[in-house]
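Task card 7
Instruction: Convert sequence to structure tokens.
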Amino acid sequence: MQQKDILIFTDGSSRGNPGRGGWGTIIILPDQTSENKSSKFMVRELGSREIQTTNNRMELMAVLEALKSISAGTECTIVTDSKYVLDGMTSWVFAWQKKKWITSDKKPVANQDLWKALLVASDGKKISWHRVDGHQGVVGNERCDEIATSFADNIPPTLYNGTLEKYPLVKDILKYTHAVRTEGDRPKIGIKTQKGKKAYSYLSVVGGIAIRHASWPDCEKRVKGVSDARYKKSFSVEDESAILKDWGVAL
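Output:
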């Protein structure tokens, strides 16, 4: 990290969709007040819970609260495992604004209160958006997941607020770039792709209802010609869970 950089990890969780939920974020930022020159960065963990919410709302809340805590004019990198958040903030919101927050299928945008708040919170800040795969050993992401799920279970964790050098995860917290995916979700050099690997399942979501298919033809029959359909191939139980979490649905 450069002296001026701010690095943010975020994650959200819900027990049921809707159900009780929680969010967590880790903010690593330059220490502007310390007289100890060896303490160049501070770490601030944030998190909270809601009694009735969704996974997508908790993902959005994690980013929103992080951005609200930093000042305008700053540069930051946000690392999330939510494709929903990343695609929304780098692509979808611009079309939604033009269409007065109505989707292509003529329905009000879901969670638009949070999307609008995120636009306000991000105004005047230079943000680099990156996505990592959840539950793949990215320490910052794993810790945010721990914070989020603990709050969702109403077992508030102890949140750290202190110097980076004394942070329990200091040795590994900055190691995330090997798993970073771009805004377009294209793997960078060094990331192994799943091309040619046998599928574990095919997933589809239509009308908010998720279904697991054993073959692509079965999946295609459900989604073909459906404007709001989502579908994807998974390669393991863990991959399937991560996809469903990104979509904010459950089987």
